Amino acid sequence: MKINTFLAEGFEETEAIAVIDLLRRANFNVNLISITEKIEVNGGHNIKVIADSTLSKTNLADADAIFLPGGGLGVENLSKSQKILDIVKEFSQLGKYIIAICAAPVVLEKAGVIANKKVTSFPGMKEKLPSIASYLEDSVVIDGKIITSRGVGTAIDLGLKIVEIFKGKDESEKLRKSVVYRI
User: Fold this and answer.
1) Domain coordinates in residue numbering, the chain
2) How far apart are CA 75 and CA 113, in angstroms?
3) Which of 52, 105, 112, 128 is the most buried (most CB within 10 A)?
4) Taking 90 as the threshold, does the pLDDT of residue 92 lie above it?
5) Is 102 a catalytic site residue?
6) Strands, E, within 110-176: which ranges?
7) Per DSSP, which regions of 69-165 are E strands?
8) What CATH code would you report for 2-178?
9) What is the pLDDT of residues 15-55, one digit of tens each?
10) Angstrom distance (rounded) from CA 180 to CA 64
11) Per annotation, catalytic residue among 102, 107, 108, 146
12) pLDDT of amino acid 183
C-alpha cells in the first residue's frame, strides 16, 4: 500500500505526522512529497519537515492513495497548485483513495470531487463545501473512496481508520493498543 502525502508550506504538523507515523507503523509505504522544489517544508507552527521527494520528481501513478493534511496556509497553498488539483481529479477518476483532514476537504471541493458526497472537515470550513450532499461531525467520514476527518484531535482516529480499511479491523486494533490509544 503506497500513500503519497502532499506537504505545502503551512501544513498542520500534528495532522500530517500523526497519520504518517501510524501508517508507517502499520508498514504502509508513505511518501512525503513537497509541492515545491524545496525538500524542506515549514509547517504552520514552524516545525520543519524534510520530505522524501518533490512533486516534480515523484512518480505519482503508482500510489494507491493520496493524503492531504490541513492547516490554513497549507491548504491555501495546496488549493493554488493546479498540479495538486489535477492529481486529486485523476485519483478520483481512477477510483483511488483520497484522504483529507481539517481544512483540506476545501481542496477536494475546488477539484470538484466531493459533489454529492458525505464529508467532514474542520468546523470553520463547512461553508466552503457547497457541493456536498451532507456534512457530518463524525471524527472520520467515508463516502466511497473519499475519506475526510476533522482536525488535529481526530488525526489518530483517521490513521487507525485507514489501517482498518486497507489491513482490516484486527490490524487497526492491534496498532491502537500498541500506541496506548483509548485503552
Assistant:
1) 2-178
2) 16
3) 105
4) yes
5) yes
6) 118-119, 134-135, 140-143, 146-149
7) 97-101, 118-119, 134-135, 140-143, 146-149
8) 3.40.50.880
9) 999 999 999 999 999 999 999 999 999 999 999 999 999 99
10) 28
11) 102
12) 80
What whole-number distance in Å separates Cα of residue 130 and Cα of residue 170?
A: 37
What would the grid cell of residue 101 be? 483532514
Query: pLDDT for 101-156, tens place per residue?
Result: 999 999 999 999 999 999 999 999 999 999 999 999 999 999 999 999 999 999 99
The answer, as to whether pTM is greater than 0.90, is yes
d(CA 129, CA 43): 24
Residues ≥6 apart with Cβ < 8 Å to 153: 139
AA identity, residue 138: D
Residue 135 cell numbers, joined: 456534512
Sole residue written with cell 498540479: 83
With beta carbons less than 8 A apart as the criterion, state whether 136 and 155 touch: no
